[in-house]
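#random but structural
TW: two for the price of one
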Amino acid sequence: MVAQEYTVDLNKPLVFQVGHLGERYQEWVHQPIVSKEGPRFFSNDFIEFLTRTKWYAVPLIWLPVVCWCFSRSLQMGHSITELSYMAVFGMFIWTLLEYSLHRFLFHIKTESYWANTAHYLLHGCHHKHPMDGLRLVFPPAATAILLFPFWNLVKMFATPSTTPGLFGGGLLGYVLYDCTHYYLHHGQPSSNPAKHLKTYHLNHHFRIQNMGFGITSSFWDIMFGTLPPSLRKKSI
């Protein structure tokens, strides 16, 4: 007797279904469904609500935190020029983190039930439903939880007075990343660099999904050799 392969029912909550796909999950999740209507994740309405985020929630919630961080470094005696260096350096570090998370965590290969389920929640859902506008940016509740270990990590390498400025720069980089990511999916840029970035990112979704991991820039793809061959002459 041959066991029947598991089939995902798109009309039912998806999260606890996808794990059953086993080794077929990777193939399934990288076959995108292009629709602005996102799927239901959970049967519980409150948990379902937490998975949906309007893009403008990101700047509304986190830009005041960025301003507070910058003001703390200024209050501790740093000049505007010094703060600018901290902010730019923090944003630069974010671009490396953006690339590294996307390449090594978001595109990790999974097969087990719980690994597939976790991957779908983390990033697989975005590749399966790339135009779902309510699941493009990271939910604020999850971001808030992750900020604590990142703050402590910055504290390990920075002084008490530079920690807020560097952290604020990194957080500003994250805000720009999430807003840029949303725009690349739903905006219609008519000129570069936004037009190039949109082409670059959609190429990652619909053509070569194991390359082109940068969102706000192709810099780290160039540095680490993950630039799609067809875009090498066009990239910045």
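TW: number two ↓
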Amino acid sequence: MLSIVPRHYFLGFIPLAAGAELITVFGVVNKASGIYGLLSIFTGHPITAAQLVLNVISLLLLPVFLYALHSVRRQQALPVVAFSYIYFLDMLANLAFTIYFSVTWFRVFDGAATAEAAAGTSSSLDTASERGLSITIIVLALLFKVYFCFVLFGYARMLVRKAGLRSDNGEGKYMKQLQYIMLAIAPSFWRRGGRRAGKGRMVNTLEEGIEMY
């Protein structure tokens, strides 16, 4: 009956539709920042291969996020479902890049901290507090990213149920196949589940069950 995927609200008080739009806007801004990353090539600013790949991926996904923003605002179920999967894959890619950049940064940080400690200009307590703060910020950012992913899937599920979409009722040759692939994954998540109650009505949440009885 209970689910970690939001059903109605973002952050507990913002409507799910507004939350999904806000998350998508943040995503558009984030992907657009890849333009400035690539501009560093022409300005002579040093950039690693990993940073270059990340900026290229961001630019390639920018049109996808812009179209997704249009779909989220117009409450188009199938495009929002597709965007939820894309956002999930993008989250995994960002996780991999974050781990790589964090490990690289901590190696540089440890080297600099060791040199400062040897010179007597830094204490081990300062180094530990800075490392702890950095790890906390990284973990919180990743947790928010995961939560944003849950919100998008929750909004997509709401639109799917509102439109009455199933894995077997798609229209058009290619759209039907795409709908089947996306909704066949974890079908119990997308459809209205629960036990029968009353006149054939499905009980989907704990609150609905309490209201009925």
